[in-house]
């Protein structure tokens, strides 16, 4: 069988290694449903070896001065930017996302986070506190790395998520064993090689490949001190339960069913553009998508008409073509899952199908076997519908009408998720009041989706534990040590004076 890319192996202790399992799996180009490369699967023994390499590297890396660590990470960020388009093309082949997106967002935003944390530690950001308790008694605190950490990546933003995990981990002085998603694994070895080229010591960043069983073995390993996971809520709950039972630190970035509330005074163009960004960017495969769009009843028809006028600007086509801005879904199984939700919305929920649906878009012959779907909008939706309650993770927007802002807020919060939320309005005082009431960890006003390196992001409720990025993001990769110093010369005693 022809593969367009070479075999991918494991990467640990600073170099490529063949897996001992004798097993491989294929990664598939979602646009054409054809194989891209064979990927070697790590055995438990391979995972043990990679973890041992990370464990050996930890003492030296954790004691490396922060400024020296910063220089290495800054160089890695520079290499990522130099190779941006090359890496973005591989991301497009592996994930199906349009090159117009991967070339401007995926690599760039990952490099931004790497550079942010390099600059943060290089400028003394890991300093502790000094507190005077009494005249002769002081307390000082110190931040210490955790040890060997596990990163479990997701398939929708492969290299970005790998960098969002590894950047603060390595900046804090930890080492990492990283497992990419089996659906989009090609970036793992590329990133490891870039880190090595930048001067990262052998064993500090390691990559093993495989499915959920490999991830489960990695995250339950006794040497692992922390697990950072991005993925589905159900899987995240299992990972978090296993980690907590073994007293490991965890960061969980999970799913959502986020509300986007358009207030009655909102600018129509901005609100429609925001709703499209919140539902169709990355073909809807974004955990923070605002898939529940709440519209004032009086504004519903106008909003929907303008939405229908703009939908044709979503252009499916060859993902590497710079005219394409809407790619396929990531895999055959995910394609079937999204179509099953659309089918349920039509046949069982009985929502009104405004556009899109089950029919494939018209594609060139070379792309007809790919996992394509049309941007889909349901209207006349109710809160009890399955398509409104459950995360679809595809380009499926649900339009819901409301009569009062108070009602919209109450309904927006009536979910087990709490990842993201947004408000569109010209009244910023009203915007802040509504945002303050929404039960979500990531919120936007008059925009949707941007997450700069400086912005801590993380979910409430079942949408996650902890945050990534920003100053708070690195705290999740550190532990605190407090020391009290008595300089009085009179020690505490139980003995009589």
What does this 3D model show about the protein?
The chain starts with 9 loop residues before the first strand and ends in an 11-residue tail after the last strand. It folds into 2 domains: 265 residues, Aldehyde Dehydrogenase, Chain A, domain 1 (3-Layer(aba) Sandwich), CATH 3.40.605.10; 187 residues, Aldehyde Dehydrogenase, Chain A, domain 2 (3-Layer(aba) Sandwich). A 7-stranded mixed sheet has the order 14-15-16-13-12-18-19, sandwiched between helices. The chain has a 6-stranded mixed sheet with strand order 9-8-7-10-11-21, sandwiched between helices. Strands 5-6-22 form a 3-stranded antiparallel sheet, with no helix packed on it. The chain is an alpha/beta fold. The longest helix has 24 residues. The mean pLDDT is 95. The protein has 15 helices and 22 strands. Helix 2 packs antiparallel against helix 4 and helix 2 crosses helix 6.
Key attributes of the depicted protein:
15 helices, 22 strands, alpha/beta, 497 residues, 2 domains, six-stranded mixed β-sheet, oxidoreductase, Aldehyde Dehydrogenase, Chain A, domain 1, Aldehyde Dehydrogenase, Chain A, domain 2, seven-stranded mixed β-sheet, 38% helix, 21% strand
């Amino acid at each position: 069988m022809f593969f367009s890319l070479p075999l991918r192996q494991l990467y640990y202790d600073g170099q490529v290694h063949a897996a001992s399992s004798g097993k491989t799996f294929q990664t598939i180009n979602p646009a054409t449903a054809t194989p891209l490369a064979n990927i070697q699967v790590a055995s438990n023994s391979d995972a043990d070896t990679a973890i041992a390499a990370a464990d050996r590297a930890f003492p030296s890396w954790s004691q490396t001065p922060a400024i020296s660590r910063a220089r290495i990470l800054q160089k890695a960020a520079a290499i990522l930017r130099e190779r941006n388009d090359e890496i973005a093309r591989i991301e497009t082949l592996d994930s199906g996302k349009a090159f117009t997106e991967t070339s401007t967002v995926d690599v760039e935003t990952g490099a931004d986070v790497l550079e942010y944390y390099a600059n943060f530690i290089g400028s003394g950001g890991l300093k502790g506190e000094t507190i005077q308790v009494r005249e002769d008694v002081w307390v000082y605190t110190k931040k210490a790395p955790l040890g060997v950490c596990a990163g479990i990546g997701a398939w929708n933003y492969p290299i970005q998520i790998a960098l969002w995990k590894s950047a603060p981990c390595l900046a804090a002085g930890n080492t990492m064993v990283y497992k990419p998603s089996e659906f989009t694994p090609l970036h793992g070895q590329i990133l490891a090689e870039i880190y090595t080229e930048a001067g990262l010591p052998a064993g500090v960043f390691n990559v093993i490949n495989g499915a959920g069983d490999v991830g489960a073995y990695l995250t339950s390993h006794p040497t692992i001190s922390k697990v950072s996971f991005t993925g589905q809520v159900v899987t995240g709950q299992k990972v978090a339960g296993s980690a907590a039972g073994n007293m490991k630190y965890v960061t969980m970035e999970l799913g959502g069913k986020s509300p986007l509330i358009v207030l009655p005074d909102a600018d129509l163009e901005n609100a429609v553009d925001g709703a499209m960004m919140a539902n169709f960017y990355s073909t809807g495969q974004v955990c923070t998508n605002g898939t529940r769009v709440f519209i004032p009843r009086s504004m519903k028809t106008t909003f929907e008409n303008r939405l229908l006028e703009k939908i044709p600007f979503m252009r499916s086509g060859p993902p590497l073509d710079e005219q394409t801005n809407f790619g396929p879904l990531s895999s055959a199984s995910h394609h079937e899952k999204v179509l099953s939700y659309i089918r349920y919305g039509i046949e069982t929920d009985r929502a009104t199908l405004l556009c899109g649906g089950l029919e494939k878009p018209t594609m060139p012959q070379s792309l007809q076997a790919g996992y394509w779907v049309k941007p889909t909008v349901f209207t006349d939706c109710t809160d009890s519908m399955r398509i409104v309650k459950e995360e679809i993770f595809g380009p499926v927007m649900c339009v819901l009408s409301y009569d009062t802002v108070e009602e919209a807020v109450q309904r927006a919060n009536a979910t087990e998720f709490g990842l993201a939320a947004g408000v569109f309005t010209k009244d910023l005082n009203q915007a802040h009041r509504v945002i303050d009431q929404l039960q979500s960890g990531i919120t936007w006003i008059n925009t949707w989706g941007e997450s700069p390196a400086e912005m801590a992001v993380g979910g409430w409720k079942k949408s996650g534990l902890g945050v990534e990025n920003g100053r708070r993001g690195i705290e999740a990769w550190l532990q605190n040590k407090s020391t009290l110093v008595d300089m009085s010369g009179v020690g505490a005693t139980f003995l009589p004076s």
